[in-house]
């Protein structure tokens, strides 16, 4: 690192030698290489609640309107407009992406609106909720349901093999937060 005299010489506009310039550049390069890298945004594990109190969402997409209707989402339950629900376990939340991963703990596949089910005839394994924005009436929620028998994490998404019906996203629903 340059000493105080060298820094003063540089600050006053005094010409510097090639050796001094090389020393300053080398010092800067070493400082940059040894600096602690910025942490990449990681998914956080549940310690604090994400959907507490439960949040209400109005069906926006045609699919959501005809299958789930409006929903209520909490850290432990997804409740559909007809009152049926599935129990959830919050696994991960990534604040930067707005994604929250839930494991479905109820091995049921409730009948929803118009005789439909979340993803057809089989119960789903995971739900990913992705919220964008925080303005009532303008915030969107995408709810993605997955068949995936193994352990799933947010960093695994999107799933790589859409042709394997045991390891794929099987439904996508879009909602909007109600206006207040």
Outline:
The protein is built from three helices and eight strands. With 180 residues, the protein is of the alpha+beta class.
Task: Please characterize this protein's 3D structure.
The structure is a single chain. This protein is an alpha+beta fold. It has two domains: 4-34, no CATH class; 55-176. Helices cover 17% and strands 28% of the residues. It has helices at 4-11, 18-34, 62-67; strands spanning 55-59, 71-73, 77-79, 85-94, 99-104, 126-132, 140-147, 168-176. Strands 1-2-3-4-5-6-7-8 form an eight-stranded antiparallel barrel. The protein is globular. The N and C termini lie far apart (59 Å). The relative contact order is 0.15.
Number of strands: 8
Mean pLDDT: 75
Number of helices: 3
Largest sheet: 8 strands, antiparallel, barrel
Rounded to the nearest angstrom, the radius of gyration is 26 Å
Secondary-structure class: alpha+beta
**Basic shape:** globular
Oligomer: single chain
Strand arrangement, largest sheet?
Answer: 1-2-3-4-5-6-7-8
Strand content: 25-35%
Ranges with pLDDT <50 over ≥5 residues?
Answer: 1-43
Q: How many structural domains?
A: 2
Topology:
Elements: H1 4-11, H2 18-34, E1 55-59, H3 62-67, E2 71-73, E3 77-79, E4 85-94, E5 99-104, E6 126-132, E7 140-147, E8 168-176
């Amino acid at each position: 690192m340059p000493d105080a005299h060298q820094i003063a010489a540089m600050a006053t506009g005094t010409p510097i030698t090639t050796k001094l310039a090389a020393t300053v550049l080398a010092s800067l390069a070493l400082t940059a290489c040894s600096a602690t890298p910025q942490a990449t945004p990681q998914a956080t594990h549940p310690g604090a609640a994400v959907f507490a109190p439960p949040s209400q969402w109005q069906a926006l997409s045609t699919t959501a309107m005809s299958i789930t209707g409006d929903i209520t989402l909490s850290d432990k339950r997804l409740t559909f407009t007809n009152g049926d629900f599935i129990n959830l376990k919050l696994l991960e939340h990534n604040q930067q992406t707005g994604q929250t991963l839930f494991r479905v703990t109820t091995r049921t596949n409730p009948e929803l609106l118009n005789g439909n089910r979340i993803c057809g005839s089989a119960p789903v394994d995971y739900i990913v909720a992705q919220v964008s924005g925080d303005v009532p009436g303008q915030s969107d929620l995408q709810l993605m349901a997955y068949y995936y028998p193994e352990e799933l994490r947010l960093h695994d998404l999107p799933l790589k093999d859409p042709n394997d019906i045991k390891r794929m996203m099987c439904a996508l629903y879009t909602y909007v937060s109600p206006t207040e």
